[in-house]
Design a protein that fits this description.
By secondary structure, this protein is α/β, with parallel strands linked by helices. It is built from ten helices and ten strands. The chain binds 5'-O-[(R)-(carboxyoxy)(hydroxy)phosphoryl]adenosine and zinc ion. The site of 5'-O-[(R)-(carboxyoxy)(hydroxy)phosphoryl]adenosine (KG4) has 19 residues, from α4 and α5.
């Protein structure tokens, strides 16, 4: 018969609901919020209002697509953090109420762990899910983490950004060029047509496995400011090359630390996760580690890279098997927590 779990994700600006049957996704529905477009970033208050409007239709749609009734669900899994507090509260309140009404367990999920556990969803491009332990580079709009994944529930943070996240670096570079939010996917698109060696920027010099992206952003800003003084059309005339160059710099920074982590731990099973793992430059560079470094590489399916509830549902499935249920008095957390 198997286990059916409803996953709910509302940590930032995407309202998402998914239904999983064991490790197989039956439905994964996402409502994006267009209200933020004019503001160049996510406006927290608008995000929570939009979640309020979207959450019931999105869950309804997921259950309909999965062709199961709410009474067949075994548990409700939801993102408890990290994220925007107002946004998290919408998903958490709904999940609690629904689990109480249905009389089924509530499961809290850490958003960053869920990005990694998405690799265990059935139907990926690799035949077998990663074996433990493996190293995961989790790169999103709010976090950049090197995680030593020992088990579904035990993950050791071995490196992280000391300032901006990789996704933030993409989005800020895009904003400097006048591209709309979120700029990461647009940079990826334009980069495919440009020369990654056209412009270069200084590499951050951060010891150990930590990252820094704020210097890169600043040098990009100053470089463009100087060029625009000489030629006001500089950005328009060089968009593809600028995107290709900044993307290749960000990917280089990420790869350098990933390689360092492989060397330090001696672990040659490597994965990427999070929104920025959708980036074609990063996907290609990481895929090459198979040949160059003899690694086994795990790259998630595109639909499981950016925020989605399928990853919350799979994390919920593993917690359900382990009877890790949450109390209804649990409250969301905004900043990353290890557990
Ligand atoms: O994981 P995610 O959906 O949300 C957070 O948890 O933050 O990641 C969103 C981030 C944004 O910064 C977005 O610009 C970036 O992922 N992103 C990309 C691409 N697709 C999404 N960055 C570069 N290239 C992409 N193709
Ligand atoms: Zn995310």
């Amino acid at each position: 018969m198997g286990i059916y779990i409803l996953g709910i994700e509302s940590s930032c600006d995407d309202t998402s609901a998914a239904v999983i049957h064991n490790r197989k996704i039956l439905a994964n529905y996402i409502a994006n919020q267009s209200v933020h477009k004019d503001f160049g970033g996510v406006v927290p208050e608008l995000a929570s209002r939009a979640h309020q409007q979207n959450i019931i239709p999105v869950i309804d749609k997921a259950l309909c697509t999965a062709k199961i009734s709410k009474n067949e669900l075994h548990a409700i899994a939801f993102t408890n953090g990290p994220g925007l507090m107002g946004s998290l509260l919408v998903g958490a309140s709904f999940a609690k109420t629904f689990s109480l009404a249905l009389g089924i367990p509530l499961i809290e999920v850490n958003h960053m762990h869920a990005h990694i556990l998405a690799l265990f969803i059935e139907g990926q491009s690799f035949e077998q899910p990663p074996q433990f332990p493996f190293i995961c580079l989790t790169v999103s709009g709010g976090h950049t983490q090197l995680m030593l994944v020992k088990d579904y529930f035990e993950m050791e943070l071995i490196g992280q950004t000391i300032d901006d996240a990789a996704g933030e670096a993409f989005d800020k570079a895009a904003k400097i060029m006048g591209l709309p939010y979120p700029g990461g996917p647009l940079i990826d698109q334009y980069a495919a047509l440009g020369n990654p060696k056209a412009f270069s920027f200084p590499h951050p010099n951060i010891p150990g496995l930590d990252f820094s992206f704020s210097g890169l952003k600043t040098s990009f800003l100053y470089f463009l400011r100087d060029q625009l003084k000489k030629n006001p059309d500089f950005i328009a005339q060089n968009t593809n090359d600028l995107c290709a160059s900044i993307q290749s710099m960000i990917v280089e920074v990420l790869l350098r630390k990933l390689r360092m982590a492989i060397k330090e731990t001696g672990i040659k099973r490597v994965a990427i996760a999070g929104g920025v793992s959708a980036n074609s430059g990063l996907r290609n560079a990481v895929a090459k580690l198979e040949e160059s470094d003899g690694c086994k590489v795990y790259i998630p399916k595109m639909e499981y890279c950016t925020d989605n509830a399928a990853m919350i549902a799979i994390a919920g499935f593993f917690k359900y098997q382990n009877s890790q249920f949450a109390h209804h008095a649990i409250t969301p957390f905004a900043k990353f927590q290890k557990k």
